[in-house]
Amino acid sequence: QNSHGLLTRMCYHKWLVAWSLAASLLAGRVQADVLEHHSQAETLAWVAHYQPEAIAHGHRLPFAQIIRELDSNRVVFVGETHDRYDHHLNQLAILRALHQTNPHLAIGVEWFQQPFQPVVDAWLAGKIDENELLRKTGYFDRWRYDYRMLRPIMEYAKANHVPVIALNAPTELTRKVSRGGLASLSQQEQKQLPAELTPPDPAYRSRLEKIFAEHAGEGHQLDNFLLVQRIWDETMAQNIWRFLQPNPDWRMVVFSGSGHISHGAGIPDDLARQLSGVRLTTVLSSDRQDVQPGEVDYFLLTQPHNLPATGKLGVWLDEHKGRLQIGEMAENSAARRAGLQAGDQLAAINGQAVRNMCDLMLTLANYKPGQRVKVTVAREGTAGLAAYDVTLQ
């Protein structure tokens, strides 16, 4: 996990960690069945037989009927809790089914930020590999969730020539606004924002205020929090419009955090203002006990599924002078047991250079809990580098 682990199903919380590059590598996993698919073919075979039950307007509906009803919409929003693999499998199931009915389908994703659309396009075209995609989009600094959860969706898009549209606003803008409001932006930065930022309606604002009150730390400003939320919503709606408006024969399935699409507010409402008459609908994966009538149009009932665990160090990391520096350490963590200390700066793992979060995550993805790796660090006041044998947790 990383610092986004404090998020709940309402993705508004990500602003609370937007000011810091801290990342927790602890394994706080939901109790769930583990799905270990060794190839895209295995994942698609599993999805092909996966028929989640749905609830709409108080009635239970089979998955096939839901797809028939979704098929009549030009835009289908499918919400997610970012660290729930089963939610992403539901997204893949809907994508696959809708694409089979009409191949003129694009995918809009919150996971990538709009300035990196050329990088996403280059990967889809086979011009760069996955590691380059993740490095050049700044994925592990800007999003940080386990990319393995998204890989089946991205691979489906690549194999079937489905456009993937990077919808999100750049972190540089939202971080500055979260600290200092719109006045902190330069004129050039303000030009990157949507022309209009509509205030949230009273019900939406009330939900946002509740989240702010529960999670905001000292010094955080409610007005800035609301601005950042609206920048996310309006930017994603604008980028959907920019694709659909000149492509009248195309439609889109949009994958975003559930908070951006719930209760008729957020992206769907913003898009409806920009694309008059557009037919759209909202879907949310939900545990049965969490279904809230009126939150979205359709609920897909689900249960947690996890991917196999990857190795963790058991530390929180900060970026310091261009290096990843150990901040706090979990009690009895793998790193602490091996002799690593707070303040150590990571240099390499098993000889693989670790300069940033992307290096770290790509490296650790190759190891499982219980495997031993050699972690090389620089320690203040000590000449040269020191190496420690760490049994990953």
Q: What overall form do the CA principal axes indicate?
A: globular
* Main β-sheet description: 8 strands, mixed
**Low-confidence regions:** 1-30
Approximate helicity band = 25-40%
Quote the beta fraction. 15-25%
- Cα separation of the termini: 12 Å
- Average of per-residue pLDDT values: 89
Rg, nearest Å: 21 Å
Number of strands: 17
Tally of individual helices: 14
Strand order within the widest beta sheet: 4-3-10-9-5-8-6-7
Instruction: Decide which structural class fits the backbone.
Output: alpha/beta
Provide a descriptive summary of the structure in words:
With 393 residues, the protein is of the alpha/beta class. Helices cover 34% and strands 21% of the residues. The protein contains 14 helices and 17 strands. The strands form 4 sheets. It has an 8-stranded mixed β-sheet with strand order 4-3-10-9-5-8-6-7, sandwiched between helices. A 4-stranded antiparallel β-sheet has the order 15-14-16-17. Strands 1-12-13 form a 3-stranded antiparallel β-sheet. A hairpin with a 2-residue loop joins strand 14 and strand 15 (352-353). The chain is globular. The two termini are 12 Å apart. The model is unreliable at 1-30 (pLDDT under 50).
Summary tags:
393 residues, alpha/beta, eight-stranded mixed sheet, four-stranded antiparallel sheet
Layout: helices, strands, pairs:
Layout (H helix, E strand, L loop, with lengths): L22 E2 L8 E2 L5 H9 L5 E3 L2 E3 L1 H8 L4 E6 L4 H17 L3 E9 L3 H8 L5 H7 L2 H4 L8 H9 L4 E5 L2 H10 L6 H4 L11 H14 L6 H23 L6 E7 L9 H8 L5 E7 L11 E4 L3 E2 L8 E6 L2 E7 L4 H5 L6 E5 L2 E2 L3 H8 L7 E7 L6 E7 L2
Parallel strand pairs: 2-11, 5-8, 5-9, 6-7, 6-8, 9-10
Antiparallel strand pairs: 1-12, 3-4, 3-10, 12-13, 14-15, 14-16, 16-17
